[in-house]
């Protein structure tokens, strides 16, 4: 009898990934980091508004800087990371983000903090986040066996959902106790914790093998051709990118409304922000059953059609019972958004050939997230000219119409969506198994 050593990606004991030491380290590091990120996402705009007394335009620019990396490096990031050691990409970008965010309280203590520094920190942190997220998606399948991926992703998603629910409330309490600049230090420490946890992972995957003829431009072109050559994917890209555009218009002035015009405390602002995550959690629980009841295609357009008009509550909220109405609207809106996202992302993954999945995701991320900095700049400009509430109304009207591309596509009538099938012979691995213009 031959005794073999257990695979480094497989837990040695029963109980699934609870007994997988390396996964636990990754999971624990990412969970703490997610909570820290929720704190800084609330704290950075409040630093600009409450400490630096930034104008509405400047707050819009700051929000744009947070997402500008998706435009700058979103497309090539996937191809670049494929050539690197994923574990070191995670560690280095955790350390970079920790150092960047730690400068905020240090600069405030020294009395030299400026809005321009926040712009640079937001830009550089965004670039590091893009590379971290891409490497994270590649690293998990190397860390655990393929049959454990569903369990692993479920645990990671559960931590993310929990952080989105509890994180903003925690952030609001910390900002009230420590003030916004010093609350950012919590996120810096969380990234250090994540880096330490990843460093302690014992599995050391080898450097990925490079293609014999790597061509970055060709790889980017293949991803664009697959997405833009498919009628349904084009409709989804148009819907999601326009929703993110108008959502960023709203985000650019949302905290200005709550903190400056309504004069709400950071704790109340954090609590209101947390309600959105509650809706997201409900959406995650009902997405599959909703699609089974109404059909996969209708589930996509119905969910986003319901979510958009919920934003119409925001422009009219006052410091009274309408805050409760805003919380209910946020729950409903994010429930619809998550149902939409789960169903359209699942469709994209099922349709795409395995060898093109990374480039397809990078292309979609570029197309749908690339509108966010422009929306934030638009929100800041409108907020400083026509006013905060008028800007919120314009963004809400725009969001109410974003369902049209998917409603006017074949998705409206498709109870079951097409999926990829291996070609019988050698074929173009970047081509859709379905005729691009036939969808």
From TrEMBL:
Its main location: membrane. It comes from the Bacteria. Residues 232-439 form the Major facilitator superfamily (MFS) profile domain. InterPro entries: MFS_dom, MFS_trans_sf, TM_effector. It is found in: Cell membrane. Residues 419-439 are annotated as: Disordered. The chain crosses the membrane at residues 32-52, 59-80, 118-139, 180-201, 235-258, 264-287, 299-317, 323-342, 363-382, 388-408. Keywords: Cell membrane, Membrane, Transmembrane, Transmembrane helix, Transport. It is a multi-pass membrane protein. This is MFS transporter. It comes from Streptomyces doebereineriae.
